[in-house]
Design brief:
Strand content of chain B: under 5%
Radius of gyration of chain A: 22 Å
Structural class of chain B: mainly alpha
Number of strands of chain A: 0
CATH topology of chain B: MetI-like fold
CATH architecture of chain B: Orthogonal Bundle
Distance between the termini of chain B: 48 Å
CATH superfamily of chain A: MetI-like
Strand content of chain A: under 5%
Distance between the termini of chain A: 48 Å
Number of helices of chain A: 12
Helix content of chain B: over 70%
CATH superfamily of chain B: MetI-like
CATH topology of chain A: MetI-like fold
Shape of chain B: flat
Number of domains of chain A: 1
CATH class of chain B: Mainly Alpha
Oligomer: heterodimer
Number of helices of chain B: 9
Order of helices and strands of chain B: HHHHHHHHH
Shape of chain A: globular
Number of domains of chain B: 1
Largest interface: A-B, 37 and 37 residues
Helix content of chain A: over 70%
């Protein structure tokens, strides 16, 4: 197994040398770049997943909540959508350091001392705001008859949301949610500023040691690859999940 | 609490004036980038709308690349890459020449490239929303090409493009914070300097966030006014 991998790696490097890339540099940093991609994917995957969990109650608070609750949810999403992610990340990462004693007292310091956790935390709060707006739009675009019919059938409101409303809202929001995923991949590069070695972080490290612009080219290709794959997968997903909505093409 | 507010005072003991300067630089950067980005966007939109297959492919490639790359990466490529490229070019002319790229210019170019990619999509949709007959009618009335654009096509295109462009502007405003990473003394950078000295990160970054919120609030007022003005000759569905 080891020898096969080594042979594959050699072959890859030979190929890269063939198109004029710096193979020495790639041999030294190539695996670190793959680690960086993995960290980026973890960062985005975790944040977007946790973001959905937060976005559903936020969207419901906007639609169903009383005055106070919907106002609060509105303020939340206004804040996170109106300020730069970089500022939010600094607020959490450096702000947590300031409250170290209090955080230790309530037993949360171990979480916030790690830059990766802070990045996931901030990105989750941020993407939840955007996702909740998408979901709210989806819910509000449904005709009132959907809920009325569900209730006429004796479904409770909770059950109606789970079985009737939310699935349709998700279907409507599928495309914007895919865009949000792509935006998160791009935005995750900000984590490198608070010392997370994601793809961008690894790239900056490699550049600061080698002063070879080529590493930025590798990063560009890897980011574009990730974004394109997500776009393609999402297109397939959308066609499959929304096939009942398809108009004759 | 009072101590914290004192930190925001103007003058030698407070950071109010430094942060205000940073905020002004942020606005300046966004305002300078806007025409650059829209110009690029218009050029790319026209390329994508053209009958030449090559031009269309170039336009599509441009949008794919600059919409797909993280803004931070584009910024680094423009800043460091521009520096190396210009130094190499200058070195070919004068032995041992070294060129420093101005950070502000690098910021404008990088953000302009990104804005160009996003606004080209908006502008393309707007160009296609104006029916061909409008142009033909203007031509039949004897209007020149430029006057047709200024008096007939543009006002209609503008109305369709405004909501999308307003979105682009909001994103641009937030993206300007990234230039603080290459040491431009914008709002974000000045805030970080204040934090370094005062050790009050939570307070200062919160203040910075609130300033960004004020900017986007003001922008949306301006854009609502512009949109109302642009659609004054247009009756909305169920509208007023």
């Amino acid at each position: 197994m080891q020898t096969i991998l080594a042979a594959l790696a050699d072959g890859f490097l030979w190929l890269m040398g063939l198109i004029g890339l710096n193979t020495d540099l790639m041999a030294r940093y190539g695996l670190r770049f793959l680690d960086g991609v993995w960290v980026t994917l973890q960062l985005v995957g975790l944040s977007v997943f946790l973001g959905v969990l937060l976005a559903v109650p936020l969207a419901l608070a906007r639609v169903e909540g009383g005055k106070a609750l919907s106002r609060a949810a509105w303020t939340y999403s206004y804040f996170f959508r109106g300020t730069p992610l970089l500022a939010q990340t600094f607020l959490v990462y450096y702000g947590a350091g300031q409250f170290r004693e209090q955080l230790t007292d309530i037993g949360l310091w171990w979480f916030f001392r790690d830059a990766f956790n802070c990045a996931v935390f901030t990105f989750t709060l941020n993407t939840a705001a955007y996702q909740s707006e998408i979901l709210r739009g989806g819910i509000q675009s449904l005709p009132a008859g959907q809920m009325e019919a569900a209730q006429a059938l004796g479904l409770s409101r909770v059950l109606a949301y789970r079985k009737i409303i939310l699935p349709q809202a998700l279907a409507i929001g599928l495309r914007p949610l895919g865009n949000e995923l792509v935006l998160m991949i791009k935005a995750s590069a900000i984590a490198s500023v608070i010392t997370v070695y994601d793809l961008m972080g690894v790239t900056r490290l490699a550049f600061s040691r080698s002063y070879d612009m080529e590493v930025y080219l590798w990063a560009a290709v890897l980011y574009l690859l990730m974004v394109e794959i997500i776009r393609r997968v999402w297109n397939v997903l959308e066609r499959r999940l929304n096939r009942h909505l398809a108009v004759s093409r | 609490m009072l101590n914290l507010l004192e930190l925001l005072s103007f003058g030698p003991n407070g950071w109010g004036d430094e942060i205000l300067q940073g905020a002004l630089l942020t606005i300046e950067l966004a305002l300078v980038t806007l025409p650059v980005g829209i110009a690029i966007g218009l050029a790319v939109a026209l390329a994508k709308d053209s009958s030449s297959r090559v031009l269309r492919a170039v336009g599509d490639l441009y949008t794919t690349v600059f919409r797909g790359l993280p803004e931070l990466l584009t910024l680094f490529i423009v800043y460091y890459g521009g520096q190396m490229l210009l130094t190499r070019l200058a070195g070919a002319l004068v032995e041992g020449a070294h060129i420093e790229v101005n950070q502000f210019v690098a910021g404008v170019v990088a953000l302009g490239l990104v804005l160009g990619a996003f606004s080209s999509e908006v502008l393309l949709a707007a160009i296609r929303a104006v029916p061909k007959g409008q142009k033909e009618a203007a031509h039949a009335l004897g209007l020149s090409g430029w006057r047709t654009f200024r008096l007939v096509t543009f006002p209609q295109l503008w109305r369709v493009a405004l909501p999308g462009l307003s979105n682009n502007w909001m994103v641009l405003l937030k993206d300007t914070s990234l230039v603080s990473v290459i040491a431009i003394t914008d709002l974000m950078r000045q805030t970080s300097i204040a934090v370094g000295v005062t050790k009050q990160p939570f307070f200062f970054y919160l203040v910075a966030c609130l300033i960004y919120l004020v900017f986007s609030g003001l922008s949306s007022l301006v854009f609502t006014a512009l949109e109302n003005r642009a659609s004054r000759g247009f009756k909305r569905v169920g509208g007023h």
